[in-house]
Design a protein that fits this description.
Radius of gyration: 23 Å
Number of domains: 4
Helix content: 25-40%
Structural class: alpha+beta
Shape: globular
CATH architecture of the largest domain: 2-Layer Sandwich
């Protein structure tokens, strides 16, 4: 491998490292898998990425694989940014915001720009990418796009996909693809090209035709695999490949530049907490709360708040309701620009709660500290004080149809009892995405086997109730096996066809968004982790 590193060092402006300590430090993302790369490449520009991809392609043509693993800041949770081969570290140097067009509200930037840097820069203009609010601010924009990530305002303002205007992508062979809507006439010209880009446009049209019946059955809330193929072709026959790269996790190409649409941002956020003595009443109220046009509605099992309180989280409002212990909490936020509109929303809450027994309403303008930290209450379950238990939020962002939600929660509780694992849940009331937060040990081999069983059975349960375990965030290396086993062979074949089209030699992030062996996955779990 030193010969490969030496060759790349002579051709790249960025650094190439294969020191053991650096490779070990890059072996993990924010999840539970650990796979050390063979080298870390820190490109300084798109040309460096192109040269690395072209070199990897040429090696693969000669039978010597050098996989490429794109990585931002490493805050993904599903193993999408870890793997063998050359890790392309985009955060080191490719972190420039090039320009901002205030008239069109467009920002052009590199993928290594952090969420914090972008939001801070846009705040000076009174704007922001609101779908990113609530994500770890240390994460990169490129990583968020590649992982199809979104924060707590996505229910009101849409997912991150709504903000992506265009992408510059380095393809597997080192060519550069500029995404964007192209007309039928331009599509004909693209299909005539005798290069990888031409192959891709010809192949995408073929896949759209060959799998039209399968594509028509994809639920719009299901983000598994490359289900964004449903948004590639418009009714007028035009094509835009941008959706395929949102959530692709570096398996179809490496994003090297982007243009994002931004929104005007309110500087105000009024919050209220509803504490319930009955979880059923709380879940029933979600439908009513959606009608108030809030910025967000978040449901939490009381067990999540109780865990936090036990380790020192201050919640003086979390008290008995009607002499009964709390069973659920709902946090509601209003971010309207107009103060009267925000006040009106809180008045509606007061009226609603006044007609419901066993519910206590707490407003953040009472004698209480801000309620906003409740949005991150699950961190005390995913990062508990006790060593050797807990996990990153891998059982998160499932889509479950609202009409089956009540039955699903009962079935999930029964599954937890069977596996002897507590599965308290949180629900985004606007996106209707569900997350579970177990505390489970992973130090022993038997623990990891039980974890694999938990992933398998929860995936099957979500599918049984008409949902999908990938409603947001990519399935990565760890969860793809369990997601794909529920969707049918024909859809998996379509995913493979899309993957093969963009990555014919299999150099881009192999093992991510693919059917992996469960035993191998269990062996990749870092049993030394102490959350």
């Amino acid at each position: 491998m030193s010969k490969v590193a030496t060759y790349l060092r002579g051709h790249l402006a960025g650094e190439v490292d294969f020191r053991t300590d650096l490779r070990a430090a890059r072996a993990r993302d924010a999840g539970i898998l650990a796979i050390a790369p063979e080298m870390v490449v820190s490109p300084r520009n798109t040309s460096d990425i192109r040269k690395t991809a072209r070199f990897s392609w040429q090696l693969s043509e000669r039978g010597h694989a050098l996989p490429l693993v794109a990585r931002g800041a490493g805050y993904g949770i599903s193993g999408g940014a870890v793997g063998r081969g050359a890790q392309i570290s985009l955060a080191a140097h490719m972190n420039t915001i090039f320009e901002y067009d205030s008239k069109q509200r467009l920002a052009r930037l590199q993928p290594g720009v952090t969420i914090q840097a972008l939001q801070s820069a846009l705040a000076l203009q009174g704007t922001g990418v609101l779908a990113l609010d609530g994500l770890d601010s240390r994460g990169t924009i490129g990583g968020a796009i590649a992982d199809n990530a979104a924060g707590y305002l996505a229910g009101k303002y849409g997912s991150l996909a709504a903000n992506v205007s265009q992408l510059e992508v380095v393809l597997a062979n080192g060519d550069v693809l500029q995404t964007g809507k192209i007309s039928k006439r331009e599509l004909s010209r693209k299909k005539g090209q005798q290069d990888l880009e031409g192959d891709i446009y010809r192949g995408v049209e073929t896949i759209l035709e060959d799998y039209a019946d399968e594509i028509s059955t994809i639920h719009e809330r299901d983000q598994t695999g490359y289900n964004s193929i449903v948004r590639v072709r418009d009714r007028d026959g035009s094509i835009d490949l941008t959706p395929l790269f949102i959530g692709n996790q570096g398996t179809l190409g490496i994003i090297s530049e982007m243009i994002l649409r931004v929104d005007f941002r309110s500087q105000h956020l009024d919050t209220a907490a509803l504490v319930f003595a009955s979880a059923d009443t709380a879940r029933d109220m979600l439908d009513e709360l959606r009608r108030f046009a809030p910025a967000f509605v978040k449901y939490f099992d009381a067990a999540l708040v109780r865990r936090a309180v036990q380790v020192g989280y201050k919640a003086p409002w979390f008290q008995e309701v009607g002499g009964k212990a709390p069973q659920a909490v709902i946090l509601v936020g209003f971010d309207d620009f107009n103060a009267r509109a925000r006040a009106k929303g809180k008045k509606k809450l007061e009226k609603l709660c006044g007609g419901v027994a066993d519910v206590s309403l707490v407003l953040d303008d009472d004698a209480h500290a801000s309620l906003s930290p409740l949005l991150d209450i699950a961190r005390y379950s995913t990062l508990p004080d006790r060593a050797g238990v807990g996990m990153s939020p891998l059982l998160s962002d499932w889509f479950v149809p609202p009409e089956r939600f009540e039955d699903f929660t009962k079935a999930l509780a029964a599954l937890g009892n069977k596996l002897r694992v507590d599965l308290p849940i949180a629900v985004d009331g606007l996106t209707e995405l569900v997350s579970a937060y177990p505390l489970a040990p992973i130090a022993q081999a038997s623990d990891r086997q039980k974890l694999m069983r938990l992933f398998d059975e929860t995936a099957r349960l979500v599918h049984q109730y008409g949902g999908a375990i990938v409603g947001q965030h990519g399935e990565g290396r760890l969860l793809s096996r369990f997601a794909y086993e529920c969707i049918g062979a024909r859809r998996v074949d379509m995913y493979r066809a899309i993957r093969k089209l963009f990555d014919p030699l299999g150099t881009l992030n192999p093992g991510v968004k693919q059917l992996n062996d469960v035993r191998q996955l269990a062996g990749m779990i870092d049993g030394t982790l102490r959350f």
